Amino acid sequence: MRRRFRPLATALVALLVSTAAVTGGTASAQAAAEPYANISGSGSTWSQNALDQWRRNVQTTRAMTVDYRGLGSTAGRSDFINRTVDFAISEIPFQLQPTEVGAQPERPEPGGYAYMPIVAGGTAFMYNLKIGGKRVTNLRLSGATVSKIFAGQITNWNHPEIQADNPGLAMPDRAIQRVARSDGSGSTAQFTMWMSKQHGDIWTSGMTSQFPGNVGATLQSGSLGVAGYVSQNYGEGAITYVEYSYAVKSGFPVAKVLNAAGYYIEPTASSVAVAMLKAQINNNASSPDYLTQILDGVYGNTDPRTYPLSSYSYMIVPTTVRGTFDQAKGRTLGEFARYVLCEGQQQAEQLGYSPLPMNLVMAGAEQIKRIPGAEGSGVDINNCKNPTFEPGDSPESNRLAQTAKQPAECDRQGPDQCTTGTAGASDTDTDVTGSGGGGSAAGAEGTGAAAAASGGAAAADPAAVDAGAVGGDAVYDANGALVSGSVAGGRTAVSSPFTIPDPVWGGPQLLMLAAAILLLGSIVLPPVLSRRLRGGGRKTG
Q1: Would you say 121 and 270 are in contact if contact means Cβ atoms under 8 Å apart?
Q2: In whole angstroms, how far apart are CA 529 and each of 8, 9, 37, 271, 516?
Q3: Listed residue (257, 263, 220, 256) closest to 240, CA to CA
């Protein structure tokens, strides 16, 4: 009788062993490895949507805890200097010799830090505008017009220069609400740098991280704050500057901006990738500003597919043991940085950003090696899984830029205007039946010969708001926690967090598979066992 049950016992053992292998293989490997030390960072909200998604991913797949507070780039750099965080995120480097009035020099430890690019994106102009009760989704603006709006020189949506940018729309007689950042912001710095270099006769305040308070703007804290304000019912007529990701996830459109080739372009992943081909990167490895960006070539890029306000965001990492940062934390930071440069870039476009090209991934990998405790390795380029390149590609190539489509003819500066919506309103067209005249008040951007004066305003990081989330009374941060957020007139902006599915299997998925295997075993084995017992009884009876 024992021989009769031996195959059944063998099958049962095999089932249990296979189940244990599925559920315990990854877990045992993780248990055998040393647990990751928790790390923390602060800074930019411009790139926070990407960073928060990556943090959730590594928590699931690597049991790694990465805390982050989106306080603005200025606060992040200050926290890093004061050693209260393990890393910082910023769109601009440390301001060792600030040019803005009243700003004090930042004093990081010499030789104690490095910059590592983490993601590219476009600073966009999210707006809330209706014509005849219908939402506008195809607004176009020249750089000079944008600068005049934020400098307070253009105050109504039916201004002739806005009408000239939009020949297919009958612009409404409605006051413009300028919404800007109240906190020190890398977004504001990038925006004001662009205005000061491209339209310095309009924007005369130079590059500044703190938006000037003398232009009558409504000020909000963080990207969530500015985007949240614009998305409300009371935000009709408002416009703000914010990373494209926030508009995409909020369900609101952004303005197409006129580039140097004479086309109005949206800041998609492809248009940012094309623009950044002209970025000048500091390649002097001995420079404290190694891998930081000079964007003049981006602003004037004559490729018709270019979005002119494109840039990178940086992680500032320590290169020495300092404060509470030790080699155990360095091991975590190094592994997280490797994930960001490779697997994390797969989600960049879906999140509203543009993934890093190979040359910056390779340079970033060298920066990882400088982190104490990062185990001295960068990334394996041939197994990086970054969507901008494949094994064997040139480091200077970018597949996203190579496959970028040319703009539609109706996006060319002139009497025609496309009807298609942008960003979070890409599925909503706007009829071009207005009485606006053709042409444009200014020449193509980046030529230095615009017909209208240039100038601008400061930039700020806006907020992510789910489509339809208007008229609410609560503000949520990127982690879903309730935060305060009053705005002018005692109003409160609403902004909701968002996530996308993690493409990598983790513990929950493995447990579900194990449960399915056990359920299958419980269904299959009892009938087999019953037949065996009945058969044995007949032979011995």
Answers
A1: no
A2: 7, 10, 49, 64, 20
A3: 220
Q: Any residues with CB less than 8 A from the CB of 445 and at least 6 apart, and which?
A: 142, 143, 144, 198, 257, 258, 259, 260, 299, 300, 308
Residue type present at position 231:
S
At 88 the three-state DSSP class reads strand
CA-based radius of gyration for the chain = 27
Dihedrals phi, psi of 304, to nearest 5 degrees: -60, -20
Q: Please name which of 22, 3, 31, 57 lies closest in space to residue 346, comparing C-alpha atoms.
A: 57
Question: Per-residue pLDDT tens for 142-152?
Answer: 999 999 999 99
| Six token digits for residue 51 | 């960073």
Distance CA 16, CA 20 (A): 6
pLDDT, one tens digit per residue, over 307-337 is 999 999 999 999 999 999 999 999 999 999 9
As its CATH architecture, domain 121-310+389-425 has 3-Layer(aba) Sandwich (3.40)
Name the token pair of 73.
């780039």
**112, amino acid identity:** G
The domain limits of the chain are 121-310+389-425
Q: How far apart are CA 8 and CA 455, in angstroms?
A: 81
